[in-house]
Amino acid sequence: MKIHNLKTGIIVSEVEDFDLEQTLDCGQCFRFSQTPDGGWHGVAADHPLTLYQTPEGILFESITPDEFNGFWRKYFDIDRDYKAIRNSFPDHPALRQSTGFTPGTRILRQDAWEALISFIISQNNNIKRIKGIIERLCRNFGSPCGNDFAFPSPSSLACLDEQDLQLLRAGWRSAYILDAAHKVNSGQLDLSEISLMPIKEAREALQTIHGVGPKVAECVLLYGMGRLEAFPLDVWMKRAMTQLFPEYTPDSFGEYAGIAQQYIFHYCRSNPHCLEK
DNA sequence: CGCCAGGCTTCTA
DNA sequence: TAGAAGCATGGC
């Protein structure tokens, strides 16, 4: 990896397997969108960013090397060797298809609290509306940062009631958001501690939140806590496991099963003809 | 209009 | 203890 200074930001080059569309538009985050000029803009926690895929590397606009090293480097999982991880997967035709389809996908290391609320909102919902609800959540209850809004803190949501959350138009998920805010804000649940627990205990702790079941807990572990063994089983992955990997369990994919999951999930969503029903 | 959405809780047998 | 119903909202 190399960092090149520009007047307008920095270019990060010599990073293998790093495609912005494959990483930011694969269903793992909800606050990034493509801009009219082909770039990407979004916010992670309280860090706004505009970036571009260029022949020279990834252009991080208006970012200093210190800001990159202090935040975005970890967020984009820059220092992990994804090719080596793909090579650690079991040899299976459907998995080769999936990894070959989007080899530029990286698992984002998001904030645990933001991932928790985002994936609570995601349940029985579609990506377009998930993004809208999260945008209204940030715009109404997050602190301004530049032209954007930070993701609201647990304390800033814990003081609200369901009436206040009506403007989200999140339906019955509002009660779940409030229960998560109360349990995290009160200290009853410590997300930093949970991130370090044995995964079985971490799952159980997350699922004490009303509205957090096995799938949402797994997403929080994978996308918000850096637990790359976590393996979210949504309707698509359940179909994929039944129809494409009948002889496999999540453990079959190894310690980076969650990364395999992301390749398979995106491949099946983008090529629905691969699955029945 | 009807069906469905990166599910979960609650009810039922 | 498994399976179905109900859930709020809106995208397509």
- What portion of the residues fall into strands of 2 or more residues? 5-15%
Q: Give the strand order of the largest sheet, numbering strands 1, 2, ... along the chain.
A: 1-2-6-5-4-3
Q: Can you give the helix content as a percent range?
A: 40-55%
Write down the overall mean pLDDT. Answer: 97
Category from helices, strands and their pairing: alpha+beta
| Radius of gyration computed on alpha carbons | 19 Å
What does this protein look like?
- This protein is an alpha+beta fold and 277 residues long.
- The protein has 13 helices and eight strands.
- The strands form two sheets. It has a six-stranded antiparallel sheet.
- Strand 5 and strand 6 form a beta hairpin.
- Helix 4 crosses helix 13, helix 5 runs antiparallel to helix 8 and helix 10 crosses helix 11.
- The termini are far apart.
- The relative contact order is 0.13.
- The model has no long low-confidence stretch (mean pLDDT 97).
- The structure holds a DNA duplex (13 and 12 nucleotides).
Question: Which helices and strands occur, and which strands form pairs?
Answer:
Layout: E1 2-5, E2 9-13, H1 20-24, E3 33-34, E4 40-44, E5 47-54, E6 57-61, H2 65-75, H3 82-88, H4 93-101, H5 112-122, H6 127-141, E7 144-145, E8 148-149, H7 154-158, H8 173-185, H9 191-196, H10 199-206, H11 214-224, H12 235-243, H13 257-270
Antiparallel strand pairs: 1-2, 2-6, 3-4, 4-5, 5-6, 7-8
The structure holds a DNA duplex (13 and 12 nucleotides).
